Amino acid sequence: MEDSRIALPIGTALDRFIKKYQDQFKYATGELSQLLRDLALAGKVVNREINKAGLMNIGGAYGSINPQGEEQQKLDILTNIRFSRALTKGGEVCGIISEESEEIIYTGNHDGNYVVAIDPLDGSSNIDVNVSIGTIFSVYRRKSKTGMPVTMEDMLQPGKEQVAAGYILYGSSTMLVYTTGHGVNGFTYEPSLGEFFLSHPNMTIPEVGKIYSINEGSYNSFEQPVKDFIEHCRDNNYSGRYIGSLVADFHRNLLKGGIYIYPKTEKSPEGKLRLMYECNCLAFIIEQAGGAASDGVNRIMDIVPTEPHQKAPFFVGSKNLVEKAESMYNQQS
Ligand code: AHG
Ligand code: MN
Ligand code: MN
Q: How far is the C-alpha of 50 from the C-alpha of 127, rounded, in Å?
């Protein structure tokens, strides 16, 4: 079998790329390929809406609260509808965990073999200030028999069971970055052609990173190992960079080398980020790119979830930095 790490030339259209490497998927029936295409199409629609947000009165708060108790933005709701509709109509997905839906979304596609966990719009506090935002997703193969209603066991699988994960970054240009467990590839959207093209084949994170991304405003409520790690970064003159959109911070660190941290805080004693549709997806990508992801003590993808909206402390990025942060926890214990 051909390895997707030997990528097609830069400029290859996403559809062609997916088709070319379809036989690398374990089951290779074409369903996962179609699912990825559905996500990319919904991403294009969302991209169009985000670009016009300032003109279309779709910025600002919607007036409702999501399962995490956070205020929902109009675009949170809209993107949730776009992605869940695309995945439901596509037919390959039997269940969806979404940040913006308290309950699991049962698509009714009992013949669908996949489940998806998704953060439809990440960094939503940055919408109104025209700063990069994103979509994060992960895909699992169902455990129960095809043809039956999806079960909780299908939905709550550890990250190491992911068959695909990715994100769409709506930034200075829009990019789709994804993995199916054979390396990481990045595609840039060409709006006049309405197509994603391969622009970043075989992405790898620099082994030694010198950027740290953490909300230092919460410094006083961090655990001692996190404070020690920040001290280490300061002592070494590392650059602090924090956008406040996980996808954007992650993407920069993936390209330049660095670490993103959202630790436990007083306000969020379990961490703020959600295991199923933020941490696991980016953990799969970073490991495929040669980096690491941890909760400070455990590998993120080994954590067995017990509920759809569960949170985890998150340390993700270059190996040297994630290992250094973990060593601060080891020293403490
Ligand atoms: P979301 O918009 O999906 O709720 O995620 C926001 C997350 C993440 O994107 C970001 O890095 C983090 O929240 C920022 O939190 P702080 O403002 O507490 O730093
Ligand atoms: Mn998010
Ligand atoms: Mn979100």
A: 8
Q: What pLDDT, in 10s, does the model give residues 182-234?
A: 999 999 999 999 999 999 999 999 999 999 999 999 999 999 999 999 999 99
pTM for this predicted structure? 0.96
Beta-carbon contacts of 329 under 8 Å, excluding residues fewer than 6 positions away, are: 225, 296, 297
Contact 105, 95 (CB under 8 A): yes
> How many residues in total does the chain contain?
333
At position 69, the amino acid (one-letter code) is: G
Q: Of 77, 79, 273, 277, which is best to mutate to test ligand 1, by the most ligand atoms within 8 angstroms of its C-beta? A: 273
Domains and CATH numbers, the chain: 14-200 (3.30.540.10), 211-332 (3.40.190.80)
Q: For residue 84, which amino acid is it?
A: S
Single out the residue of 1, 24, 2, 300 nearest to residue 178, CA to CA.
24
